[in-house]
Amino acid sequence: MLLIQRMVERYACVKLAASYGDTQLMAPDDAAASFFKSPFRAHETGSAVDIAYGDFGSPASSPVDGVIVDIREFETPTPFKDRNFKEYLTAVRCGELVVRILHVKPDLGIGDRVRTGEDFGTFIRSGYFYFWNFSHLHVEVRMPDDYLRATSNMPLDLPVGVVRRAFPGGADLDSDIFEFTGEVVLSNKRYALFDCPDYSTDGHFNGYSVGGFLLDGFIPACDHALHRFGLVGKCHDAPPFDCFKSIGNSHLVYSSSVNLIVFDRENRTLDVAGAAFILFFSKPLIKLVPTRYGKHLPQCGDVVSVQIDMCKD
Predict the structure, then answer these.
(1) 160, burial (CB in 10 Å: exposed 0-12, middle 13-18, buried 19+)
(2) What is the C-alpha separation between 117 and 114, in angstroms, rounded?
(3) pTM
(4) Which of 284, 283, 288, 308 is nearest to 299 (CA)?
(5) 190 falls within a domain
(6) Are 115 and 232 in a shared domain?
(7) What is the pLDDT at residue 113?
(8) Distance between CA atoms of residues 20 and 94, nearest Å
(9) Residue 224 sits in the same domain as residue 90
(10) Is the N or the C terminus of the chain less surrounded, counting Cβ atoms within 10 Å?
């Protein structure tokens, strides 16, 4: 009886982040998820999810039940001179498939069993990370003979349904210009987070919407290596921006086809690299990224606005 109670408690604190067939990828209920924020090749095909929570050096919990069949340690590229960043790939056998996990240094070994929601390692910051990234697991589902390649074309099922405004007022309204205004609640040398109360939900994920789709990804205010972002959700209407690829209930947009401007309470444009949007199980926040590490960002209590619209020819 006690064992059953412990299992119920363990599974009660996790939620579905994504799935592939019968393989469910679970996340803590205080986590956030992103499918298109990262430049990893698997994110271009909708085959990966980043599950973000905790901090670098803190425990990471397994998104699946299974047995560890392989652990690889390797060096990653880094822009910092004379500094090496190790990365780890953990392969977990789940039935007929393998779940591939990156950005976690495992505490367990090959042959050990992992269980959903139980700690199996610690979050690391490897050379794949931008300075503004949250700690997170990068998770993919693969065939047993193909879990080492960087590319993947096994698109995940995204549990995002019909998106509506989270506050009274009904469905998200059509618009050519989308604006999000809120107060900065955290600011440091790597990023600032601001809380805009005008968020949307599908009842599972919470985030910020344009034209009935939740935004997922980094949208630059200037040139940046990340050149696309995602629109996620089930909607009968066409996306408000021109899309170059559709994958299930998600659509990819070239960031060069939209304008993003960040300004303060006095309508003065702020010099930032851009804004990052991801999906939260709890209250969502928007991340502002500086043009470089340590560059001035708005401070806690400041009111800022992000405006997004289609580029005009």
Answers:
(1) buried
(2) 9
(3) 0.92
(4) 288
(5) yes
(6) no
(7) 98
(8) 11
(9) no
(10) C
